[in-house]
Design a protein that fits this description.
mainly alpha
Length: 209
């Protein structure tokens, strides 16, 4: 991967593309290759393919605002402001105070339904919720499935059973979400449930061979 990063840094995008393509044939779920391939494909003006790999990256790292922001820019460049607005909204759920996100969100706000705008406000309330139960009540009122998923990532789940519930729910929607896989592997390792631990450890190995 360091060699690929150097190729990208040197703007050698075609060789980088060939190397990533080769590695993905060997390790198709290797998550650290997804955003790199997305970047390379973008530089090669292969925007539709770039979007697919950034979407794959988002499925593994839904807590990474840069991926959503990049998707917003790509869709904006494809003259699809309604889709771009949705992805910058997801970035805003994660980093609401970042200048570039606030600026693009204001620009694209007109393309969002009012219900989604209200759902985003609820994420802030989830962040400041005192308990898991309080956050769960807010989550139930969120209509957009993407915002609901991001809300789960912010739930103040302190007890082991609460964390287990949150991360299982996330994995029902995103089976390879790294944050949730690590959390559940850790929970089951601590409770000596080796069968369940191995299930999540195997998936982690797939995305990080």
């Amino acid at each position: 991967v360091r060699f690929i990063d150097q190729l990208i840094a040197d703007a050698n995008f075609s060789p980088a593309s060939h190397h990533i393509h080769y590695l993905l044939n060997q390790f198709p779920k290797c998550a650290e290759l997804y955003p790199r391939y997305g970047r390379v494909l973008t530089e090669l003006n292969r925007f539709d393919e770039a979007i697919l790999f950034y979407l794959r990256a988002a499925a593994v790292h839904p807590d990474n605002w840069i991926i959503f922001f990049t998707l917003a820019i790509l869709y904006l460049n494809k003259n699809k402001p309604d889709i771009a607005a949705r992805y910058v909204a997801y970035a805003a759920c994660l980093e609401p105070e970042r200048h570039e996100i606030k600026q693009l969100y204001r620009r694209l706000r007109i393309h969002l339904p009012d219900s989604l705008h209200e759902d985003i406000k609820k994420i802030g309330r989830i962040r400041t919720a005192g308990t898991y139960q309080d956050a769960d009540e807010i989550l139930e009122k969120i209509s957009d499935p993407g915002v609901s998923l991001l809300g789960c990532l912010h739930c103040p789940a302190n007890g082991q059973e609460e964390r287990r519930k949150v991360h299982r729910e996330i994995l029902c929607r995103l089976p390879y979400c790294e944050t949730s896989l690590k959390a559940l592997a850790n929970i089951y390792a601590q409770s000596d449930d080796l069968t369940r631990f191995q299930r999540y450890a195997d998936r982690l190995h797939e995305i990080d061979p």
